[in-house]
Amino acid sequence: DSGVTQTPKHLITATGQRVTLRCSPRSGDLSVYWYQQSLDQGLQFLIQYYNGEERAKGNILERFSAQQFPDLHSELNLSSLELGDSALYFCASSVIPLGNTIYFGEGSWLTVV
Amino acid sequence: QKEVEQDPGPLSVPEGAIVSLNCTYSNSAFQYFMWYRQYSRKGPELLMYTYSSGNKEDGRFTAQVDKSSKYISLFIRDSQPSDSATYLCAMSPIIQGAQKLVFGQGTRLTINP
Protein backbone atom coordinates (compact mmCIF):
# COMPACT_ATOMS: atom_id res chain seq x y z
CA ASP A 1 0.00 0.00 0.00
CA SER A 2 1.59 3.26 -1.20
CA GLY A 3 -0.54 5.48 1.04
CA VAL A 4 -2.10 7.30 -1.93
CA THR A 5 -5.87 6.82 -1.92
CA GLN A 6 -8.02 7.10 -5.01
CA THR A 7 -11.78 6.93 -5.39
CA PRO A 8 -13.75 5.53 -7.05
CA LYS A 9 -11.86 2.37 -8.00
CA HIS A 10 -14.19 1.62 -10.90
CA LEU A 11 -16.58 3.84 -12.81
CA ILE A 12 -18.79 3.19 -15.82
CA THR A 13 -20.46 6.14 -17.48
CA ALA A 14 -21.97 7.15 -20.79
CA THR A 15 -20.50 9.32 -23.52
CA GLY A 16 -21.08 13.02 -22.98
CA GLN A 17 -21.17 12.70 -19.21
CA ARG A 18 -18.88 14.27 -16.59
CA VAL A 19 -17.05 12.48 -13.78
CA THR A 20 -14.81 13.49 -10.90
CA LEU A 21 -11.94 11.36 -9.67
CA ARG A 22 -10.59 12.00 -6.21
CA CYS A 23 -7.14 11.54 -4.74
CA SER A 24 -5.73 11.81 -1.22
CA PRO A 25 -1.93 11.99 -1.24
CA ARG A 26 0.32 10.25 1.27
CA SER A 27 0.51 11.95 4.61
CA GLY A 28 3.03 14.79 4.38
CA ASP A 29 3.21 14.86 0.58
CA LEU A 30 2.55 18.28 -0.91
CA SER A 31 2.79 17.42 -4.59
CA VAL A 32 0.12 15.56 -6.53
CA TYR A 33 0.34 14.19 -10.06
CA TRP A 34 -2.28 12.75 -12.40
CA TYR A 35 -1.45 10.15 -15.05
CA GLN A 36 -3.56 8.34 -17.62
CA GLN A 37 -2.80 4.76 -18.64
CA SER A 38 -4.38 3.32 -21.77
CA LEU A 39 -3.46 0.28 -23.83
CA ASP A 40 -2.37 2.24 -26.88
CA GLN A 41 -0.73 5.29 -25.24
CA GLY A 42 0.80 3.74 -22.14
CA LEU A 43 1.26 5.85 -19.02
CA GLN A 44 0.96 9.56 -19.83
CA PHE A 45 1.53 12.55 -17.55
CA LEU A 46 -1.47 14.85 -17.30
CA ILE A 47 -0.84 17.50 -14.65
CA GLN A 48 1.06 18.27 -11.43
CA TYR A 49 0.11 20.39 -8.42
CA TYR A 50 2.23 21.49 -5.52
CA ASN A 51 0.59 22.89 -2.39
CA GLY A 52 -2.45 24.01 -4.36
CA GLU A 53 -0.54 25.50 -7.26
CA GLU A 54 -0.36 24.06 -10.77
CA ARG A 55 3.29 23.25 -11.52
CA ALA A 56 3.37 21.34 -14.79
CA LYS A 57 1.02 20.30 -17.53
CA GLY A 58 1.27 17.41 -19.93
CA ASN A 59 -1.01 16.40 -22.77
CA ILE A 60 -4.15 17.07 -20.78
CA LEU A 61 -7.24 17.64 -22.89
CA GLU A 62 -9.19 20.88 -22.54
CA ARG A 63 -12.20 18.78 -21.46
CA PHE A 64 -10.18 17.70 -18.43
CA SER A 65 -9.39 19.88 -15.45
CA ALA A 66 -7.89 19.36 -12.02
CA GLN A 67 -7.31 21.16 -8.77
CA GLN A 68 -5.63 20.64 -5.44
CA PHE A 69 -7.49 21.80 -2.38
CA PRO A 70 -6.13 23.39 0.83
CA ASP A 71 -6.27 20.00 2.59
CA LEU A 72 -4.02 18.75 -0.27
CA HIS A 73 -6.47 16.32 -1.76
CA SER A 74 -6.93 16.61 -5.50
CA GLU A 75 -9.71 16.09 -7.98
CA LEU A 76 -9.56 15.36 -11.69
CA ASN A 77 -12.67 16.39 -13.61
CA LEU A 78 -13.37 14.77 -16.95
CA SER A 79 -16.21 16.21 -19.02
CA SER A 80 -17.92 15.55 -22.35
CA LEU A 81 -16.59 12.04 -22.09
CA GLU A 82 -15.73 10.07 -25.20
CA LEU A 83 -15.14 6.36 -25.70
CA GLY A 84 -11.43 7.06 -26.06
CA ASP A 85 -11.27 8.45 -22.53
CA SER A 86 -11.68 4.94 -21.14
CA ALA A 87 -8.48 4.31 -19.23
CA LEU A 88 -6.91 3.81 -15.85
CA TYR A 89 -6.30 7.17 -14.16
CA PHE A 90 -3.56 7.25 -11.56
CA CYS A 91 -2.85 9.79 -8.92
CA ALA A 92 0.66 9.97 -7.47
CA SER A 93 2.26 12.08 -4.77
CA SER A 94 5.66 13.16 -3.53
CA VAL A 95 6.95 15.30 -0.70
CA ILE A 96 8.44 18.03 -2.89
CA PRO A 97 7.73 19.08 -6.47
CA LEU A 98 11.04 17.68 -7.68
CA GLY A 99 10.50 14.49 -5.73
CA ASN A 100 11.92 11.53 -7.55
CA THR A 101 10.32 9.21 -5.06
CA ILE A 102 6.85 9.42 -6.52
CA TYR A 103 4.26 7.05 -5.10
CA PHE A 104 1.30 5.93 -7.16
CA GLY A 105 -2.18 5.07 -6.01
CA GLU A 106 -4.11 2.03 -7.18
CA GLY A 107 -5.89 3.96 -9.89
CA SER A 108 -9.45 4.69 -10.95
CA TRP A 109 -10.66 2.54 -13.81
CA LEU A 110 -12.97 4.57 -16.06
CA THR A 111 -15.08 2.91 -18.72
CA VAL A 112 -17.06 5.12 -21.08
CA VAL A 113 -19.87 3.34 -22.94
CA GLN B 1 9.15 8.50 -32.70
CA LYS B 2 8.51 8.13 -28.99
CA GLU B 3 10.82 9.84 -26.53
CA VAL B 4 11.26 6.58 -24.63
CA GLU B 5 11.33 3.18 -26.33
CA GLN B 6 10.89 -0.04 -24.43
CA ASP B 7 10.44 -3.53 -25.84
CA PRO B 8 6.97 -4.62 -24.70
CA GLY B 9 7.92 -8.29 -24.70
CA PRO B 10 6.46 -10.50 -23.46
CA LEU B 11 9.57 -11.96 -21.85
CA SER B 12 9.43 -15.40 -20.27
CA VAL B 13 12.37 -16.87 -18.34
CA PRO B 14 12.88 -19.77 -15.89
CA GLU B 15 13.14 -19.15 -12.17
CA GLY B 16 16.66 -18.25 -11.08
CA ALA B 17 17.63 -16.67 -14.41
CA ILE B 18 19.15 -13.23 -14.74
CA VAL B 19 16.73 -10.86 -16.42
CA SER B 20 17.80 -7.84 -18.43
CA LEU B 21 15.30 -5.09 -19.24
CA ASN B 22 16.21 -2.09 -21.34
CA CYS B 23 15.01 1.28 -22.54
CA THR B 24 16.40 3.78 -25.00
CA TYR B 25 15.53 7.44 -25.12
CA SER B 26 16.01 10.40 -27.39
CA ASN B 27 15.77 13.43 -25.09
CA SER B 28 19.25 14.34 -23.85
CA ALA B 29 17.66 16.56 -21.17
CA PHE B 30 16.57 13.52 -19.14
CA GLN B 31 18.49 13.44 -15.86
CA TYR B 32 16.37 11.29 -13.56
CA PHE B 33 15.84 7.63 -14.40
CA MET B 34 13.52 5.22 -12.65
CA TRP B 35 12.20 1.71 -12.89
CA TYR B 36 8.69 0.87 -11.77
CA ARG B 37 7.04 -2.52 -11.35
CA GLN B 38 3.34 -2.85 -12.05
CA TYR B 39 1.22 -5.86 -11.22
CA SER B 40 -1.95 -6.32 -13.21
CA ARG B 41 -4.50 -3.58 -12.56
CA LYS B 42 -2.38 -2.11 -9.75
CA GLY B 43 -0.47 1.14 -9.41
CA PRO B 44 3.19 1.32 -10.48
CA GLU B 45 5.61 0.69 -7.61
CA LEU B 46 9.00 2.44 -7.59
CA LEU B 47 11.87 -0.08 -7.71
CA MET B 48 14.97 1.93 -8.51
CA TYR B 49 15.91 5.54 -9.01
CA THR B 50 19.14 6.88 -10.52
CA TYR B 51 20.32 10.40 -11.12
CA SER B 52 22.44 10.95 -14.26
CA SER B 53 24.82 8.17 -15.33
CA GLY B 54 26.05 5.24 -13.30
CA ASN B 55 24.98 2.06 -11.56
CA LYS B 56 22.83 1.45 -8.53
CA GLU B 57 22.26 -1.82 -6.74
CA ASP B 58 19.47 -2.78 -4.35
CA GLY B 59 19.31 -6.42 -3.37
CA ARG B 60 18.65 -8.51 -6.48
CA PHE B 61 18.10 -5.40 -8.62
CA THR B 62 20.74 -3.36 -10.46
CA ALA B 63 19.98 -0.26 -12.50
CA GLN B 64 22.42 1.11 -15.06
CA VAL B 65 22.31 4.39 -16.92
CA ASP B 66 24.51 5.18 -19.92
CA LYS B 67 23.72 8.74 -20.93
CA SER B 68 26.26 8.73 -23.75
CA SER B 69 24.28 5.96 -25.44
CA LYS B 70 20.90 7.13 -24.12
CA TYR B 71 20.32 3.64 -22.76
CA ILE B 72 19.16 2.38 -19.39
CA SER B 73 18.94 -1.14 -18.04
CA LEU B 74 17.49 -3.04 -15.12
CA PHE B 75 18.96 -6.39 -14.14
CA ILE B 76 17.16 -8.84 -11.89
CA ARG B 77 19.30 -11.59 -10.39
CA ASP B 78 17.96 -14.90 -9.08
CA SER B 79 14.55 -14.13 -10.54
CA GLN B 80 11.50 -15.38 -8.65
CA PRO B 81 7.93 -16.13 -9.79
CA SER B 82 6.86 -13.15 -7.67
CA ASP B 83 8.89 -10.92 -10.01
CA SER B 84 6.35 -11.63 -12.75
CA ALA B 85 4.91 -8.23 -13.61
CA THR B 86 5.17 -5.41 -16.11
CA TYR B 87 8.31 -3.31 -15.72
CA LEU B 88 8.19 0.32 -16.75
CA CYS B 89 11.14 2.59 -17.25
CA ALA B 90 10.53 6.28 -16.59
CA MET B 91 12.64 9.36 -16.92
CA SER B 92 12.44 13.06 -16.36
CA PRO B 93 14.35 16.22 -17.20
CA ILE B 94 15.20 18.79 -14.53
CA ILE B 95 12.40 21.33 -14.58
CA GLN B 96 12.32 24.18 -12.13
CA GLY B 97 9.80 23.24 -9.48
CA ALA B 98 8.17 20.42 -11.43
CA GLN B 99 8.46 16.80 -12.44
CA LYS B 100 7.12 15.27 -15.64
CA LEU B 101 7.85 11.57 -15.90
CA VAL B 102 7.95 10.06 -19.39
CA PHE B 103 7.29 6.33 -19.32
CA GLY B 104 8.22 3.52 -21.64
CA GLN B 105 5.47 1.17 -22.83
CA GLY B 106 6.44 -1.44 -20.25
CA THR B 107 7.86 -4.96 -20.62
CA ARG B 108 5.68 -7.83 -19.46
CA LEU B 109 7.87 -10.35 -17.64
CA THR B 110 6.93 -13.88 -16.59
CA ILE B 111 9.18 -16.00 -14.36
CA ASN B 112 8.35 -19.68 -14.73
CA PRO B 113 8.81 -21.95 -11.67
Characterise the protein shown here.
The complex is a heterodimer of chains A (113) and B (113). Chain A contains no helices and 11 strands. With 113 residues, chain A is mainly beta. In chain A, strands 2, 4, 5, 6, 9, 10 and 11 form a 7-stranded mixed beta sheet that branches. Chain A has a 4-stranded antiparallel beta sheet with strand order 1-3-8-7, with no helix packed on it. The model of chain A has no long low-confidence stretch (mean pLDDT 93). By secondary structure, chain B is mostly beta strands. Chain B has no helices and 11 strands. In chain B, the strands form 2 sheets. In chain B, strands 2, 4, 5, 9, 10 and 11 form a 6-stranded mixed beta sheet that branches. A 5-stranded antiparallel beta sheet of chain B has the order 1-3-8-7-6, with no helix packed on it. In chain B, 33% of the residues are buried. The chains are: A mainly beta (113), B mainly beta (113). Chains A and B meet through strand 4, strand 5, strand 9 and strand 10 of A and strand 4, strand 5, strand 9 and strand 10 of B.
Number of helices of chain B: 0
Shape of chain B: globular
Rg of chain B, nearest Å? 14 Å
Average pLDDT, all residues of chain B: 92
Quote the distance from N terminus to C terminus of chain B: 37 Å
Number of helices of chain A: 0
Q: Beta-sheet strand percentage of chain A?
A: over 45%
Largest interface: A-B, 30 and 26 residues
Order of helices and strands of chain B: EEEEEEEEEEE
Main β-sheet of chain A, in a few words?
7 strands, mixed
Number of strands of chain A: 11
- Helical content class of chain B: under 10%
Structural classification of chain A: mainly beta
Strand content of chain B: over 45%
**Share of helix of chain A, binned:** under 10%
